[in-house]
Write a structure and sequence with these properties.
The structure is a single chain. It is globular and about 35 Å long. The protein has a single domain, classed as Alpha-Beta Plaits (2-Layer Sandwich). The chain has a four-stranded antiparallel β-sheet. With 69 residues, the protein is of the alpha+beta class.
Length: 69
């Protein structure tokens, strides 16, 4: 299966601790290989071979934040 990459927008992040929390939670989602968060834009980029939007949304919520849209 070809790797996929999806970009999301996370609301509520204000500092590097926020970024770390989101990265750590999303990295635990099965099938996720790489996670990158840009604090300034709120963008979360996730790469891997088999993960779903619902799992990413749940991981972001577990970190205390919310996906926009």
């Amino acid at each position: 299966m070809a790797p996929i990459e999806r970009t999301y927008v996370v609301s509520g992040m204000t500092c590097s601790h926020c970024v770390l929390s989101v990265e750590e939670e999303v990295a635990e989602v099965p099938g996720v290989d790489r996670v990158a968060v840009d604090l300034a834009s709120g963008r979360l980029t996730v790469s891997g071979d088999r993960f779903g939007d619902d799992e990413v949304r749940a991981a972001v919520a577990e970190a205390g934040y919310e996906l926009v849209g």
